């Protein structure tokens, strides 16, 4: 198996470059990759639309398609990812955004009785929850779905910024001074409206659905390009880590489980095998795929997920071109003891 080091691309396999990119940074998804990685892969592999991202996360690949003018499909199991991806990639009329904004802040504040679950209350000051309770039904009352998504994403991301949420492999409470919600929310909306007006968009169709990567609602042989990154083995349980955001999106939704097994290698690779079989079904014969994946240290053993993924892809009928090694990190046991080197790679099919 050909491994080629491309360590200069390492930072692009993180969300960090997106932090300063308008629209891309509307929802901070620490575990995502950057827009520039997509552009690099496009040039390297001579990619063409339509594109599929079956783990679309915060919508980076789909928004890049909006810049390129490419049709694209995105799927994810988390409601917050669907909301963020749709809000970032939709087409808006600026005057309607400004009209809804004006309506939202023209009404005098009135206390609203809303019962929040106890576990939600742990993360917020009472005045913040009161403000959220005031604005949320007004946003839910926006008749046009895409505008409702835009304002709801702004509300949820503002709420998180004005909370005690701390993510360190899991969801924690870390009390510290937080800004007043209403002013923060208002500033964020103004910035989002301005950024969308200036964003370089090209005509295209973007379809985004809540769905499992192992069973996609797509016809056979319809995709030319796949760029995606499944959850890494033994890493983040995304539904738990973004539980607050998912609750604000769909409070009645039962607890989510990642559609990719996280801790058990056998279950993890079984899920990946099912995903690859589905990708083989929906891809055209000459489709190109780039799957970003990280190796893991599990129960004292180094698991080379990139090599295993390549083997599974070959078994499904894909041709493995090469594996680009983007990052190398120490495998840590109990966070301090170094146990070998972990690769983060892009498996090119």
The CATH superfamily label of the largest domain reads Vaccinia Virus protein VP39
Summarize the amount of helix as a percent range: 25-40%
- The CATH architecture designation of the largest domain is 3-Layer(aba) Sandwich
Biggest beta sheet attributes: 8 strands, mixed
Helical run tally: 12
* CATH top level label of the largest domain: Alpha Beta
Shape: globular
What number of structural domains do the residues give? 2
Rg of Cα set: 21 Å
Please state roughly what percent of the residues sit in beta strands, choosing from under 5%, 5-15%, 15-25%, 25-35%, 35-45% or over 45%. 15-25%
The CATH topology label of the largest domain is Rossmann fold
Mean pLDDT comes to: 93
Which structural class do the helices and strands define?
A: alpha/beta
Quaternary class = single chain
Low-confidence stretches: none
Strand order of the largest sheet: 1-11-12-8-7-2-3-6
Helix-strand topology string: EHEHEHHHHHEEHEEHHHEEEHEE
Number of strands: 12
**Span between N and C termini?**
12 Å
Write a structural description.
The chain is α/β, with parallel strands linked by helices. It has 2 domains: 3-79 and 202-238 and 252-348, Vaccinia Virus protein VP39 (Rossmann fold, 3-Layer(aba) Sandwich), CATH 3.40.50; 94-198, no CATH class. It is 40% helix and 20% strand. It is built from 12 helices and 12 strands. Strands 1-11-12-8-7-2-3-6 form an 8-stranded mixed sheet, with helices on both faces. A two-stranded antiparallel sheet has the order 4-5. It starts with a strand and ends with a strand. 38% of the residues are buried.
